[in-house]
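Need fresh eyes. Consider my entry:
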Amino acid sequence: MGQNCGVVSTVAAHQWPKSGEETAPTKRFARKEWSCGSKVALVTFIMIVPPMVVLYGDRLGAPAVLISSANFIHGDDSMLHWLAAASRDRLLGGLLADGFDEGSCRSRYQSAMYRRNAGKEPSAPLVSKLRRYEDLQRRCGPGTVAYSKSVEYLRSRGKSGGGGIGSPECRYLASISYRGLGNRMLATASAFLYAMLTDRVLLVDPSNEMDELFCEPFPDTTWLLPRTFPLTNYTTFNVDTAESYGNMLKNNTITPDRAGDVPAFAYVHLDHDYTMQDKFFFCDDDQRVLQNIPWLVMRTDSYIVPGLFLLTIFQEELDMLFPDRVTVFHHLGRYLFHPNNQIWGLVTRYYDAYLATTQQRVGIQVRVFGAQPNLPSLLEQVTKCTKNENLLPEVITGGEPVLAPTSRPRIKSIAVLMASLKSWYYEQIKSMYWEHATVTGETVSVHQPSHEEYQRFGSRSHDAKACAEIYLLSLSDALVTSGGSTFGYVAQGLGGVTPWVMYIRANDTAVPNPPCCRDMSMEPCFVKPPAFNDCRGKRTINPGKVVPHVQSCHDVPWGVKLVQRGFPPAVAMKTKALLAGGGKRWRLAIGIILVAVLMIMPPLVVVFSGRIGEQAMWIQAAVAGIREGPDDGMSFVQHPTTSHDKLLGGLLIDGFDQESCLSRYQSAAYRRKAGRQPSPHLISKLRSHEDLQRRCGPGTAAYSAALEQLKSGKSPAAASPDRCSYLVSISYRGLGNRILAAASAFMYAMLTDRVLLIDPGAEMDHLFCEPFSGTTWLLPPGFPLVDYQSFYLHTAERYGKMRENRVLDSGHAPAFAYIHLDYNQTDYDQLFFCDEDQRQLSNIQWLVMRTDSYIVPGLFLVESFQDEIATLFPERDAVFHHIGRYLFHPTNHVWGLVTRYHRGHLAWAHRRVGIQVRVSPWESESPQLLNTITSCTQENGLLPRVLPDTEQQPTTARRSKSSSAVVVTCLKSWYYEKMKGMYWEQGTETGEVVMVDQPSHEENQLYGVRAHDAKAWAEIYLLSLTDALVTTGTSTFGYVAQGLGGLTPWVLPRKEVNGTAPPCRRDMSMEPCFHVAPRYDCKRREFDAGKIVPHVRHCDDMPGGLKLVDRTES
């Protein structure tokens, strides 16, 4: 149930247009009558054209044209988007004047394209007033004769009506810029309204970056106060300045009721510490005095507009200008504040990369102060607000929802834009929606452009980002703001959005109940209004009770704001008349639709009758996509076939319970590359091994008999065809190591017909689904070798030790042997890769293996395995690719992490680039490594180069034709932050949009922590879904990703390189590197293992290691 801050009643306003005079609201209704017909015509056009294109497409390349359009149906180059954008009024209903140089200020005329909410229409009197005001600025502004005379008059400190230099013909208002950007914008808008009401030329203090942030709002003139302004110390004016209007009243230098000379200028002090005399500015008599003073200098950091509505002298004109009183700042802000090209680039690049393709955008502005700690109570307030007001969906905390793939609902995408000085709140909300599914199935991606940590007054880059973030918030469909924040006030006004405002908390632990409410209007709050309005008696009166459309603010109860209270009778009557005539309009609309149906039906009969075959499928898919939105974040254009090979060419078998492991059969739908095809012999071998696992695995009579044999301390006397042998793989070290070790163990188990049993420790039982049907690959509890996880060099049953001590020479096979292939393996341990030793090991029923490496290249050196390996893997560089896709299916929890991130960040990008940065927790951030990453990606064409800061952005109003999504994985966030900042703050040479994101940054590698491993596994899988991959040399994390994805990566050096070396190299294959390869042949002579067979070579990233390549030449 939504919480409203206040109930707006209908109360008669003050003076309205004379009888018979058409007002802006009635004109809007008249325009809507035409708009209805035009929109129906537009829809008719869209409905008719696609079938026509298909029917007559032989000459046009039929499905290609439609596909090209449909490919962007939900993106920023959508046909629908551009048709709608083309119909938008770039002049905002006449608010803006035509004729500006578009290249010098692209935001002025482009901004309408980025708003789903077209905004409120300005009244005709306001449009007329603005054009007259522009004439005043041109006639009296800097550089004119009138301005020169006025400055000379001010310099002489002449008196109005005095001798010497005559009284100037133009009057001026200089607005001092200070405090935060939101304050400056509200103050400027307030000064502008006052200047319009009093026919003064507005001149804005250019300090505090005001000359660096916004384009000139007035044509052919400037609104900036020239640096040569005679009052050189005006920026230091304060409550004690002698020339302040309040002090002159206090000292009887000037009085409202006494005629006489007035000064050349007066300082109007409306800051937070203004006095009772300063507040008389809001009195009619005092305004009459101020009208006679040629120059006013105003200081305020507030939105004083509600105070102007309290003045009887202005009420009639204000009613004419703003019949819809809640739109004052909405109109003034959109008229005045056009971000300059640099800031507009920040806005558009971020919008295109992170917001454009989502169906709903929610802005959240969290006001915190730099020294303030991260407050769980504030986080709770934010999440309760968005949940209670149905702005964001609730999350499921008890596990993943289980949906059959064929019954998945269409998924709505929501992008959350957070603006805050700190990143903690964003990180928490982002993690919540990544780590948990939503109850509605909606995909929620959370983004934050920057987090400066402290407010940096006077910093150009800080203000530029703040301005961009205000504007981005204003593009939201729904907005949550912090009570009393001018930052939020500006965003809501620019966007024409009535926000949900979070109440100001009593302390750092309290959570208000309710946490927020829907504000009364989109107008900002005047946070410190005058505490009186009876100016004649100077009596204290609550300013929120003087006129019905000025009410007390709910976020700042002592402040006041504008609300809409009633329409004049004239508007009400015309509205009623227009509504009464609505039937005619709808009869016209129905007629147009009927004609459209008659025109569409014949082609559709042909299309869907199957006469044109595949073209009909494309139309059906496009219609479904337009009607229902993206399915699971995947466009039908990206995956043009109606079904994916969920069995991966026979690698997998059908028949598993799909709900228990969604990833097994869904993963193919998320890959743009189908991957390599397995050989028929490998498929046959896998089916045979599955039978072996079922026949001999845990729970079978054979397994029980083998356990009893193990307990006896001896292997069976002789091998028999029915005897089952076993390989236990110990799980340890990082996740990448564990996956490579398990894959290696499985390869060896297949080659030697052993049942593979994986140590369930180190979360292996919580990360992966069972790969074998009807059995388990996990070593059950109660295994007789209770201390097997601690087996190491000291273990007596270590094969290398027994070999060294000639224990096996007696011919009696032990009950088990421990295979030690860790980094410190001895030369005797390496004899594991010899034919003679393999024959000896085949007699031992139980083997326990410890390795954290990918030992498969070593198996290729064993002659007795080579023939079968060649048949299993004719493409030698695809061994892990096949084994990994067969074995490692993320559990539903991990798969939820993968799919939610994919839908939120990767699904709609034209290109996906993965960057895996391996750093140790103790390593400091390295600018050299960052430069290496940047050079690698740009020099190899993986990502576009950025334009230099000094280079002017293109002036054409174009949207990017290509987008890249970059997923960065790293323990630290610094590299991601820098890359994201680079592509946000600088445009690309190609115009390509680049979105950079990082799922998590744990800062430290947390061994044995389930949540840490789940995120790591999800990130490995996400890297494998990219189109191009950059990895860090020697990283097992990267090895797994490249193998699963079938990607040959670009490899970054593990250490810094000199200036002449390339920043990265394309690897020789997608296979992982065997780091600790054997150094001796089986006859104990030293040799180079990288030269024995042509498809085993030394690794580029670790020269002493070995890896598989697809070569047959010697």
Remarks:
- The longest helix spans residues 24-55.
- The chain has four domains: 119-158+167-326, 339-396+411-562, 651-886, 892-947+960-1084.
- The chain is about 40% helix and 10% strand.
- The longest strand covers residues 413-419.
